[in-house]
Design brief:
Blueprint: E1 7-12, H1 38-53, E2 61-65, H2 74-90, E3 98-101, H3 109-121, H4 135-140, H5 142-145, E4 156-160, E5 165-169, H6 198-214, E6 217-221, H7 239-246, E7 252-255, E8 262-267, E9 270-274, E10 292-299, E11 302-311, E12 316-319, E13 328-332, H8 339-342, H9 360-363, H10 372-376, E14 393-394, E15 397-398, E16 401-402, E17 410-411
Parallel strand pairs: 1-2, 2-3, 5-6, 6-7, 7-9
Antiparallel strand pairs: 1-10, 4-5, 8-9, 10-11, 11-12, 11-13, 14-15, 16-17
Protein backbone atom coordinates (compact mmCIF):
# COMPACT_ATOMS: atom_id res chain seq x y z
CA UNK A 1 0.00 0.00 0.00
CA UNK A 2 1.05 3.60 -0.60
CA UNK A 3 2.40 5.53 2.35
CA UNK A 4 -0.06 7.77 4.15
CA UNK A 5 0.41 11.16 5.73
CA UNK A 6 -1.83 10.55 8.73
CA UNK A 7 -3.68 7.75 10.55
CA UNK A 8 -6.73 8.97 12.48
CA UNK A 9 -8.13 6.96 15.42
CA UNK A 10 -11.50 7.60 17.07
CA UNK A 11 -11.06 6.47 20.68
CA UNK A 12 -14.13 5.75 22.83
CA UNK A 13 -14.27 4.03 26.19
CA UNK A 14 -16.69 3.09 28.96
CA UNK A 15 -19.85 3.63 26.91
CA UNK A 16 -21.62 1.17 29.26
CA UNK A 17 -24.92 0.38 27.60
CA UNK A 18 -27.37 -0.59 30.32
CA UNK A 19 -28.91 0.98 33.42
CA UNK A 20 -26.17 3.62 33.75
CA UNK A 21 -26.02 4.69 30.12
CA UNK A 22 -26.47 8.45 29.73
CA UNK A 23 -28.07 8.61 26.26
CA UNK A 24 -31.49 6.99 26.49
CA UNK A 25 -33.11 8.55 23.45
CA UNK A 26 -35.52 10.66 25.47
CA UNK A 27 -35.38 14.02 27.22
CA UNK A 28 -35.77 14.86 30.90
CA UNK A 29 -39.57 14.89 30.59
CA UNK A 30 -39.56 11.29 29.40
CA UNK A 31 -40.61 12.17 25.87
CA UNK A 32 -38.82 10.26 23.13
CA UNK A 33 -35.95 12.22 21.57
CA UNK A 34 -34.19 10.29 18.77
CA UNK A 35 -31.46 12.95 18.66
CA UNK A 36 -30.34 12.26 22.22
CA UNK A 37 -28.49 9.00 21.59
CA UNK A 38 -24.75 8.45 21.75
CA UNK A 39 -24.71 7.67 18.04
CA UNK A 40 -26.52 10.83 16.97
CA UNK A 41 -24.55 13.10 19.31
CA UNK A 42 -21.29 11.62 18.02
CA UNK A 43 -22.29 11.90 14.36
CA UNK A 44 -23.16 15.55 14.88
CA UNK A 45 -19.92 16.32 16.69
CA UNK A 46 -17.67 14.52 14.25
CA UNK A 47 -18.96 16.87 11.56
CA UNK A 48 -18.23 19.85 13.82
CA UNK A 49 -14.70 18.59 14.43
CA UNK A 50 -14.08 18.06 10.73
CA UNK A 51 -15.25 21.56 9.95
CA UNK A 52 -13.01 23.05 12.62
CA UNK A 53 -9.84 20.96 12.35
CA UNK A 54 -9.91 19.76 8.74
CA UNK A 55 -11.23 16.92 6.63
CA UNK A 56 -8.35 14.59 7.53
CA UNK A 57 -9.86 14.25 11.02
CA UNK A 58 -12.28 11.67 9.57
CA UNK A 59 -11.48 8.45 11.50
CA UNK A 60 -9.67 5.57 9.82
CA UNK A 61 -10.14 3.29 12.85
CA UNK A 62 -12.64 3.07 15.73
CA UNK A 63 -11.32 1.79 19.06
CA UNK A 64 -13.41 1.08 22.17
CA UNK A 65 -11.20 0.29 25.16
CA UNK A 66 -13.64 -1.73 27.22
CA UNK A 67 -16.79 -1.40 29.31
CA UNK A 68 -19.16 -1.60 26.39
CA UNK A 69 -21.80 -2.97 28.79
CA UNK A 70 -22.83 -2.31 32.39
CA UNK A 71 -23.50 -5.82 33.74
CA UNK A 72 -22.27 -7.89 30.78
CA UNK A 73 -25.84 -8.86 29.87
CA UNK A 74 -26.68 -10.14 26.36
CA UNK A 75 -29.16 -7.28 25.80
CA UNK A 76 -26.47 -4.72 26.65
CA UNK A 77 -24.05 -6.22 24.15
CA UNK A 78 -26.79 -6.19 21.51
CA UNK A 79 -27.11 -2.45 22.10
CA UNK A 80 -23.35 -2.04 21.89
CA UNK A 81 -23.23 -4.04 18.66
CA UNK A 82 -26.01 -1.95 17.12
CA UNK A 83 -24.17 1.23 18.05
CA UNK A 84 -20.86 0.02 16.59
CA UNK A 85 -22.53 -1.20 13.42
CA UNK A 86 -24.28 2.13 12.86
CA UNK A 87 -21.17 4.18 13.61
CA UNK A 88 -19.09 1.99 11.35
CA UNK A 89 -21.61 2.41 8.55
CA UNK A 90 -21.77 6.17 9.05
CA UNK A 91 -17.98 6.46 8.80
CA UNK A 92 -17.88 4.00 5.87
CA UNK A 93 -15.38 1.73 7.61
CA UNK A 94 -14.87 -1.99 7.18
CA UNK A 95 -15.40 -4.29 10.15
CA UNK A 96 -11.64 -4.92 10.37
CA UNK A 97 -11.22 -1.27 11.36
CA UNK A 98 -13.29 -1.58 14.54
CA UNK A 99 -11.13 -2.58 17.52
CA UNK A 100 -12.71 -3.69 20.80
CA UNK A 101 -11.53 -5.27 24.04
CA UNK A 102 -13.19 -6.12 27.37
CA UNK A 103 -13.32 -3.99 30.48
CA UNK A 104 -14.28 -5.04 33.99
CA UNK A 105 -17.96 -4.30 33.25
CA UNK A 106 -17.83 -6.70 30.30
CA UNK A 107 -17.08 -9.61 32.64
CA UNK A 108 -20.20 -11.54 33.63
CA UNK A 109 -19.93 -12.22 37.33
CA UNK A 110 -22.90 -14.58 37.13
CA UNK A 111 -21.25 -16.67 34.40
CA UNK A 112 -18.05 -16.71 36.43
CA UNK A 113 -19.91 -17.81 39.54
CA UNK A 114 -21.69 -20.53 37.53
CA UNK A 115 -18.35 -21.81 36.24
CA UNK A 116 -17.06 -22.19 39.80
CA UNK A 117 -20.27 -23.99 40.82
CA UNK A 118 -20.25 -26.35 37.82
CA UNK A 119 -16.65 -27.32 38.42
CA UNK A 120 -17.32 -27.84 42.13
CA UNK A 121 -20.28 -30.11 41.29
CA UNK A 122 -17.82 -32.37 39.46
CA UNK A 123 -15.33 -32.26 42.30
CA UNK A 124 -12.97 -30.17 40.22
CA UNK A 125 -11.48 -26.74 40.70
CA UNK A 126 -12.17 -23.73 38.45
CA UNK A 127 -9.88 -23.17 35.48
CA UNK A 128 -8.27 -19.70 35.41
CA UNK A 129 -8.88 -17.28 33.83
CA UNK A 130 -12.47 -18.67 33.94
CA UNK A 131 -13.26 -18.13 30.25
CA UNK A 132 -17.08 -18.43 30.59
CA UNK A 133 -17.06 -15.00 32.26
CA UNK A 134 -16.51 -13.53 28.77
CA UNK A 135 -19.16 -15.70 27.11
CA UNK A 136 -21.66 -12.88 26.62
CA UNK A 137 -18.97 -10.46 25.45
CA UNK A 138 -17.66 -12.99 22.92
CA UNK A 139 -21.03 -14.04 21.54
CA UNK A 140 -22.54 -10.56 21.49
CA UNK A 141 -19.65 -8.94 19.61
CA UNK A 142 -18.38 -11.93 17.65
CA UNK A 143 -18.11 -10.16 14.29
CA UNK A 144 -15.66 -7.62 15.73
CA UNK A 145 -13.50 -10.30 17.33
CA UNK A 146 -13.18 -12.57 14.29
CA UNK A 147 -11.23 -15.73 15.00
CA UNK A 148 -9.53 -14.20 18.02
CA UNK A 149 -10.47 -14.25 21.68
CA UNK A 150 -10.39 -18.01 22.17
CA UNK A 151 -10.24 -19.92 25.49
CA UNK A 152 -6.53 -20.51 24.92
CA UNK A 153 -5.86 -16.91 23.90
CA UNK A 154 -8.58 -14.58 25.27
CA UNK A 155 -7.33 -11.40 23.61
CA UNK A 156 -7.42 -9.85 20.14
CA UNK A 157 -4.89 -8.84 17.53
CA UNK A 158 -5.95 -6.63 14.63
CA UNK A 159 -3.88 -6.25 11.47
CA UNK A 160 -5.11 -3.67 8.96
CA UNK A 161 -3.09 -4.23 5.78
CA UNK A 162 -4.74 -1.38 3.88
CA UNK A 163 -3.25 1.04 6.41
CA UNK A 164 -0.17 -0.91 7.53
CA UNK A 165 -1.38 -0.56 11.11
CA UNK A 166 -1.59 -3.19 13.84
CA UNK A 167 -3.52 -3.00 17.12
CA UNK A 168 -2.66 -5.14 20.12
CA UNK A 169 -6.01 -5.26 21.96
CA UNK A 170 -4.83 -6.53 25.32
CA UNK A 171 -7.17 -8.11 27.85
CA UNK A 172 -6.57 -6.57 31.28
CA UNK A 173 -9.51 -8.41 32.89
CA UNK A 174 -7.66 -11.73 33.23
CA UNK A 175 -8.23 -12.02 37.01
CA UNK A 176 -11.54 -10.13 37.12
CA UNK A 177 -14.61 -12.07 38.25
CA UNK A 178 -17.29 -12.45 40.88
CA UNK A 179 -16.71 -11.81 44.58
CA UNK A 180 -14.99 -14.74 46.30
CA UNK A 181 -13.69 -14.76 49.84
CA UNK A 182 -10.08 -15.78 50.17
CA UNK A 183 -6.52 -14.49 50.59
CA UNK A 184 -5.73 -11.48 48.43
CA UNK A 185 -2.57 -13.18 47.20
CA UNK A 186 -4.34 -16.30 45.91
CA UNK A 187 -4.09 -16.74 42.11
CA UNK A 188 -7.04 -19.16 42.09
CA UNK A 189 -9.79 -16.66 42.90
CA UNK A 190 -10.96 -13.48 41.13
CA UNK A 191 -9.59 -10.07 42.05
CA UNK A 192 -10.96 -6.68 41.05
CA UNK A 193 -7.84 -5.30 39.48
CA UNK A 194 -6.26 -4.93 36.10
CA UNK A 195 -3.87 -7.69 35.07
CA UNK A 196 -2.56 -8.73 31.67
CA UNK A 197 -0.05 -11.43 32.58
CA UNK A 198 3.31 -12.27 31.05
CA UNK A 199 2.08 -15.04 28.68
CA UNK A 200 -0.21 -12.52 26.96
CA UNK A 201 2.48 -9.83 26.88
CA UNK A 202 5.01 -12.23 25.34
CA UNK A 203 2.39 -13.38 22.80
CA UNK A 204 1.95 -9.81 21.61
CA UNK A 205 5.66 -9.10 21.79
CA UNK A 206 6.51 -11.74 19.16
CA UNK A 207 3.91 -10.44 16.70
CA UNK A 208 4.70 -6.78 17.27
CA UNK A 209 8.41 -7.41 16.76
CA UNK A 210 7.67 -8.72 13.27
CA UNK A 211 5.53 -5.72 12.38
CA UNK A 212 8.18 -3.41 13.78
CA UNK A 213 10.65 -4.95 11.34
CA UNK A 214 8.06 -4.46 8.57
CA UNK A 215 7.67 -0.79 9.45
CA UNK A 216 3.98 -0.83 10.47
CA UNK A 217 2.47 1.64 12.94
CA UNK A 218 2.00 -0.42 16.13
CA UNK A 219 -0.60 0.61 18.69
CA UNK A 220 -1.53 -1.04 21.96
CA UNK A 221 -4.80 -0.81 23.89
CA UNK A 222 -6.11 -2.10 27.21
CA UNK A 223 -8.82 -1.09 29.65
CA UNK A 224 -7.42 -0.43 33.12
CA UNK A 225 -5.56 2.65 34.34
CA UNK A 226 -1.92 2.94 33.44
CA UNK A 227 -1.39 5.19 36.43
CA UNK A 228 -3.49 5.61 39.56
CA UNK A 229 -6.34 8.10 39.19
CA UNK A 230 -8.70 9.34 41.91
CA UNK A 231 -7.08 6.97 44.42
CA UNK A 232 -8.28 3.86 42.60
CA UNK A 233 -6.57 0.58 43.40
CA UNK A 234 -7.64 -1.18 40.21
CA UNK A 235 -4.92 0.16 37.95
CA UNK A 236 -2.88 -2.13 35.70
CA UNK A 237 -0.76 -3.93 38.27
CA UNK A 238 1.70 -5.33 35.74
CA UNK A 239 2.20 -2.04 33.88
CA UNK A 240 5.98 -2.16 34.58
CA UNK A 241 6.20 -5.54 32.85
CA UNK A 242 4.17 -4.27 29.88
CA UNK A 243 6.55 -1.32 29.64
CA UNK A 244 9.69 -3.44 29.83
CA UNK A 245 8.62 -6.02 27.25
CA UNK A 246 6.68 -3.89 24.79
CA UNK A 247 8.21 -0.40 24.91
CA UNK A 248 10.46 -1.01 21.90
CA UNK A 249 7.69 -2.62 19.87
CA UNK A 250 4.75 -0.26 20.42
CA UNK A 251 4.44 3.34 19.23
CA UNK A 252 1.63 4.33 21.61
CA UNK A 253 -0.86 2.91 24.14
CA UNK A 254 -4.45 3.99 24.79
CA UNK A 255 -6.85 2.98 27.57
CA UNK A 256 -9.98 3.93 29.49
CA UNK A 257 -11.44 2.93 32.89
CA UNK A 258 -10.47 6.06 34.85
CA UNK A 259 -13.39 8.07 33.41
CA UNK A 260 -10.89 10.88 32.96
CA UNK A 261 -8.40 11.78 30.24
CA UNK A 262 -4.74 11.50 31.14
CA UNK A 263 -1.29 11.39 29.59
CA UNK A 264 1.77 9.39 30.60
CA UNK A 265 4.99 8.37 28.84
CA UNK A 266 6.89 5.10 28.57
CA UNK A 267 9.66 7.03 26.85
CA UNK A 268 10.02 10.13 24.73
CA UNK A 269 8.69 8.13 21.80
CA UNK A 270 5.85 6.17 23.45
CA UNK A 271 2.88 8.06 24.91
CA UNK A 272 0.09 6.47 26.96
CA UNK A 273 -3.21 8.31 26.49
CA UNK A 274 -6.54 7.69 28.17
CA UNK A 275 -9.98 9.13 27.63
CA UNK A 276 -12.95 9.35 29.96
CA UNK A 277 -16.31 7.66 29.66
CA UNK A 278 -18.27 8.51 26.54
CA UNK A 279 -21.62 7.35 27.85
CA UNK A 280 -22.06 6.77 31.58
CA UNK A 281 -24.34 8.81 33.86
CA UNK A 282 -22.81 11.29 36.28
CA UNK A 283 -23.44 9.17 39.38
CA UNK A 284 -21.13 6.47 37.97
CA UNK A 285 -18.18 8.77 37.30
CA UNK A 286 -16.30 11.55 39.13
CA UNK A 287 -18.81 14.43 39.27
CA UNK A 288 -16.26 17.01 38.16
CA UNK A 289 -15.40 15.03 35.02
CA UNK A 290 -17.58 15.35 31.90
CA UNK A 291 -18.19 12.64 29.35
CA UNK A 292 -15.21 12.50 27.01
CA UNK A 293 -13.86 10.95 23.84
CA UNK A 294 -10.76 11.69 21.80
CA UNK A 295 -9.43 11.65 18.27
CA UNK A 296 -5.77 10.78 17.81
CA UNK A 297 -3.88 11.62 14.63
CA UNK A 298 -0.59 9.84 14.11
CA UNK A 299 1.98 11.17 11.66
CA UNK A 300 5.56 10.01 11.23
CA UNK A 301 6.92 12.82 13.40
CA UNK A 302 3.96 13.97 15.46
CA UNK A 303 0.82 13.14 17.40
CA UNK A 304 -2.25 15.33 17.42
CA UNK A 305 -4.80 14.86 20.19
CA UNK A 306 -8.30 16.33 19.91
CA UNK A 307 -10.30 15.77 23.09
CA UNK A 308 -14.04 16.40 23.33
CA UNK A 309 -16.26 16.86 26.36
CA UNK A 310 -20.05 16.63 26.55
CA UNK A 311 -21.67 19.89 27.66
CA UNK A 312 -24.97 18.81 29.20
CA UNK A 313 -26.54 22.27 29.16
CA UNK A 314 -26.00 22.50 25.40
CA UNK A 315 -26.91 18.87 24.67
CA UNK A 316 -23.76 18.67 22.56
CA UNK A 317 -20.06 17.93 22.59
CA UNK A 318 -17.47 20.69 22.74
CA UNK A 319 -13.77 21.30 23.31
CA UNK A 320 -12.27 19.53 26.32
CA UNK A 321 -10.11 22.35 27.67
CA UNK A 322 -8.55 20.09 30.30
CA UNK A 323 -6.35 18.73 27.51
CA UNK A 324 -5.45 22.05 25.90
CA UNK A 325 -6.79 25.20 24.35
CA UNK A 326 -9.63 24.34 21.99
CA UNK A 327 -9.31 20.75 23.24
CA UNK A 328 -6.14 20.35 21.18
CA UNK A 329 -2.70 19.07 22.17
CA UNK A 330 0.12 18.39 19.72
CA UNK A 331 3.36 16.52 20.36
CA UNK A 332 6.50 16.21 18.28
CA UNK A 333 7.33 12.49 18.42
CA UNK A 334 9.73 10.70 16.11
CA UNK A 335 7.85 7.40 15.97
CA UNK A 336 10.21 4.47 15.52
CA UNK A 337 10.06 2.06 12.57
CA UNK A 338 6.90 3.24 10.83
CA UNK A 339 8.25 3.55 7.28
CA UNK A 340 5.68 1.19 5.75
CA UNK A 341 2.83 3.31 7.13
CA UNK A 342 4.16 6.83 6.57
CA UNK A 343 7.05 6.35 4.15
CA UNK A 344 10.73 6.65 4.84
CA UNK A 345 11.92 9.95 6.35
CA UNK A 346 13.36 12.48 3.97
CA UNK A 347 17.06 12.99 4.70
CA UNK A 348 17.96 16.29 6.30
CA UNK A 349 21.28 16.29 4.47
CA UNK A 350 21.77 18.96 1.83
CA UNK A 351 21.54 18.24 -1.87
CA UNK A 352 24.79 17.91 -3.85
CA UNK A 353 26.67 21.15 -4.57
CA UNK A 354 26.52 22.70 -8.03
CA UNK A 355 29.83 21.08 -8.92
CA UNK A 356 28.41 17.56 -8.45
CA UNK A 357 27.63 15.39 -11.45
CA UNK A 358 24.05 16.47 -12.20
CA UNK A 359 23.76 14.32 -15.33
CA UNK A 360 22.84 11.44 -13.05
CA UNK A 361 19.47 13.08 -12.50
CA UNK A 362 18.73 12.62 -16.18
CA UNK A 363 19.91 9.01 -16.46
CA UNK A 364 17.98 7.93 -13.38
CA UNK A 365 20.94 6.99 -11.16
CA UNK A 366 22.01 8.77 -8.00
CA UNK A 367 25.22 10.81 -7.77
CA UNK A 368 27.76 9.81 -5.17
CA UNK A 369 27.13 12.94 -3.10
CA UNK A 370 23.52 11.93 -2.41
CA UNK A 371 22.62 10.41 1.00
CA UNK A 372 23.97 6.84 1.22
CA UNK A 373 20.63 5.36 2.28
CA UNK A 374 19.23 6.20 -1.16
CA UNK A 375 22.27 4.77 -2.92
CA UNK A 376 21.93 1.53 -0.97
CA UNK A 377 18.27 1.13 -1.84
CA UNK A 378 17.48 1.82 -5.51
CA UNK A 379 13.76 1.43 -4.72
CA UNK A 380 13.69 3.90 -1.83
CA UNK A 381 11.00 6.56 -2.01
CA UNK A 382 12.37 10.04 -2.63
CA UNK A 383 10.22 13.04 -1.82
CA UNK A 384 10.81 15.99 -4.12
CA UNK A 385 9.22 19.28 -3.14
CA UNK A 386 8.62 21.97 -5.74
CA UNK A 387 7.38 25.33 -4.50
CA UNK A 388 5.84 28.00 -6.67
CA UNK A 389 3.61 31.01 -6.24
CA UNK A 390 0.89 31.53 -8.81
CA UNK A 391 -1.19 34.67 -8.63
CA UNK A 392 -4.44 34.52 -10.57
CA UNK A 393 -6.11 37.87 -11.18
CA UNK A 394 -9.55 38.57 -12.57
CA UNK A 395 -10.95 42.09 -12.72
CA UNK A 396 -8.60 43.27 -9.99
CA UNK A 397 -9.47 40.36 -7.65
CA UNK A 398 -7.10 37.52 -6.75
CA UNK A 399 -7.82 33.83 -6.20
CA UNK A 400 -6.61 32.53 -2.82
CA UNK A 401 -6.68 29.01 -1.36
CA UNK A 402 -8.10 28.28 2.07
CA UNK A 403 -5.79 26.53 4.54
CA UNK A 404 -7.56 23.26 5.41
CA UNK A 405 -6.06 23.20 8.92
CA UNK A 406 -6.70 26.88 9.70
CA UNK A 407 -9.90 27.85 7.89
CA UNK A 408 -9.43 31.57 8.58
CA UNK A 409 -6.18 31.74 6.59
CA UNK A 410 -5.62 31.98 2.83
CA UNK A 411 -2.66 32.03 0.46
CA UNK A 412 -1.67 31.89 -3.23
CA UNK A 413 -0.98 28.46 -4.70
CA UNK A 414 2.08 26.82 -3.20
CA UNK A 415 2.93 29.64 -0.85
CA UNK A 416 3.11 30.03 2.90
CA UNK A 417 -0.31 30.52 4.40
CA UNK A 418 -0.93 33.98 5.75
CA UNK A 419 -3.80 35.59 7.59
CA UNK A 420 -5.81 38.13 5.64
CA UNK A 421 -8.05 39.95 8.09
CA UNK A 422 -10.33 41.19 5.29
CA UNK A 423 -10.69 37.83 3.53
CA UNK A 424 -14.17 36.49 3.06
CA UNK A 425 -15.43 33.04 2.16
CA UNK A 426 -16.92 32.99 -1.33
Amino acid sequence: MCAREVITVLHLSDIQFGVNHRFLGRDWTGIDNPYDTLLERLKEDLEVVRGHFGRDVTPDIIVVTGDLAEWALPAEFRQARSFLKSLQTHLQLRTERVVILPGNHDVSREECKAHFAQRAAKGEGPVPPWYPKWRNFRSGLREYLGQTFTPAEPWSYYEIPRLNVVFAAMNSTMVEGHDVKGPSSSPDIPHHRGTVGEPQIQWFRKRLQKRRHDGWLRLGAFHHNWQRVHGNHDDLVDAPLVARLLEENVNAFIHGHAHKSSLAWLSQRVPVLSTGSAGVVIKARPPETPLQYQILQFRRNSLRRISRAFIAANHSWGADVTVGQDGLAEFQIDFADVHATFGRPVSSRRLPPQSADRSALVTGTLPEAWPPEYSADPHARVRISIAALLKLELDGRFLLVRNEYHPNTFAPFGGVFKVYATAETK
